[in-house]
Amino acid sequence: MRTMRKQIISLTLALAILPGSVYAQTAGLGAAGELVDPDVLRVCADPANLPFTDEKGEGYENKLAQLVAEKTGRKSISYTWFPMVMGFVRNTLRANRCDIIMGYAQGDELVQNTNAYLRAPYVLMYKKGGPLEGVETIEDPKLADKRVGVVQSTPPASNMAKANLMKKAKIYDLMRDTRFTHSPAELMIKDIESGEIDAAVVWGPMGGYFAKQMKADLAIVPLTKETTGSRMIYRITMGVRPSDQEWKRTLNTVIRENQPAINKILLDYGVPLIDEQNRPITE
User: Fold this and answer.
1) How far apart are CA 115 and CA 111, in angstroms?
2) 173: which DSSP letter?
3) What Gene3D superfamilies does the entry give (predicted)?
4) pLDDT tens digits, residue range 1-24?
C-alpha cells in the first residue's frame, strides 16, 4: 500500500469552454515559468503497481493517461518509471523528467493537486456467508477474536489498535517493490481464502481490483461508518509541480468535462467509488 496524500483547487471559466486541442496550446512550454511538454504527455509512474500503473499499460492510471493525452491534444505518451517509494516525487516530477502523476492523494506539499477525480474508502474484506457476515466497522465486536490483516503504518492500523485488534493482526509491508513481490492486497486475499487470516483492511481500489481479478468470493465492505480514529475515505487527484498553474487548470477542466468516462474506467477495475454522501457510485 502506498502512503496517502491530499488536494483542492478550482477551475477557471475560460479554460472550461475550450476544446481539447486548444488546451495544449495554453499549457505547455510556452506558458510562462512552466516546463510542461505541449506535445507529449510525460507521466511519472511506478512500473509494477497494479491496479494503478505498469509497464504494459494495464493499470487504470495508464488508461486515464490515454484519456488526458487525447483531451489535451498530446500526440503521444511517455513514462518515467520509478518505484512508488521514498524519493519518487524528487526523482521524477521534481526532477522535471515528467509532468504529471496520475494518482496522488489530496494534501501533500510535495506536489500541487488538481481537483479530485476519485473518492474512495478503505475496505474490510472477509468471506461471504461466514461468521463475519454483516460486519461494517473495525469496531464491531465480531472482530474481537479474529485475526485481521492490515498494511503497516496505514490509517486503519490506528483504528485497529483502538479496537484492540493488533495483538492478533497480521502485518503486511507498506513499502515493497512490486516488480519482485506481490501486492499486499493480493497476499491478503490469498490469506483470507486459505484461512491464514479471517479478514483484512486495505485501500479500496487495491482490494476491489484484486478481488475481481482473482474471482474471490469475498464481501468488500466500504469503511464509511467508522466513528473514531483515522479517516478511512480519501480523495485522489493528479499531481503536478507547484509552478505549473496553467497545466493544473487544464487538467481540472479535463476532469470536470470527462468525469463519467473517468468513472467508467475506475469501475471497470473494481474501484469502490463513493460520492460526497458516501453513497456508492455505480456508473
Assistant:
1) 13
2) -
3) Periplasmic binding protein-like II
4) 333 333 322 222 222 222 333 333
